[in-house]
Input
Amino acid sequence: MTAQDSGKPLLQAHGIAKHFSVRQSGLGPFGRKGLLKAVDGVTLSVMPGRTLGLVGESGCGKSTTGRLLLGLMTPSAGEVQFDGQPLAKAGTAEWRQQRQLMQMVYQDPLGALDRRLTVGRQIGEPLEIHHPGMTVADRNERIVAEMAAVGLQPHHAERYPHELSGGQRQRVVLARALILQPRLLVCDEPISALDVSIQAQVVNLLLDLQQDLNLAYVFISHDLKVVRQISHDVAVMYLGRIVEYGEAESLFRDPQHPYTQALLAAIPSVVRQGAPRIAPIQGDPPDPANPPSGCAFRTRCPRATALCAETAPALQTLPDGRQVACHFVTPDTASRPGRVAA
Output
């Protein structure tokens, strides 16, 4: 029985982490070694046909998390399960079988495509790799069908990537990802390199494809307006950890973590009439190789106290099912919209 049939999550991550050894000071091999915790104990799940938005500032670990979810990186700790089964070891036949059902959509479509090959050849390349026995006629039929599904014309198959617009190239990347009929797409900033007018077209295309194919998405982005439009659930990351996680509408309507509040305060369209103004986030994120003690956000948080420096807050569940990692938000104090309870 699949996750779609049983109502269980299609994708689950349990405490996944990715740590890198780095040189923190000194020159060359004489520098002091440190540990950079790019991802540090992330737990999340994605249901079939739903979208999880993964948001946060640059360097918070969003893209690394996406690669861990696909098995493109080996976690330092934790486990990822797809359709109830642990991800197989990268490079094995079992992993390749799983990867047919999990695909990545990259930020830069031109960089994701080979400029020396026609787009038709590149869209069909996954079929050559995973279904070598497929006839040329059947493969070409699938290529044309996928191109039509993403809004491309048959004549585009003979074009090279540089001959297409940015929006058309992203549609090519989507067609290539969809040709193996996956159930999950990890979209890593898929519209940030596109013009604003083209961004809306690609977002609408993703929504239509999800409805038609019951696709699950992990949508990684720093654009909260787009995340609100496309996501069913949202996970807010800061310095490798999730600080707020829950249903998208309640999170945008009533943010509880001070970091989430500060991110949303920078978007005029989500500030409600009469709601208290919250100052946008100040300063730069700390060095992930040398994070602050206790709560990592305390150096930028206007409500930080000595407790925040001593103890890192754990994610706790609020009455609406949302999870928040803040000492000043508890199930009893989370009822005041738009601000952190004192």
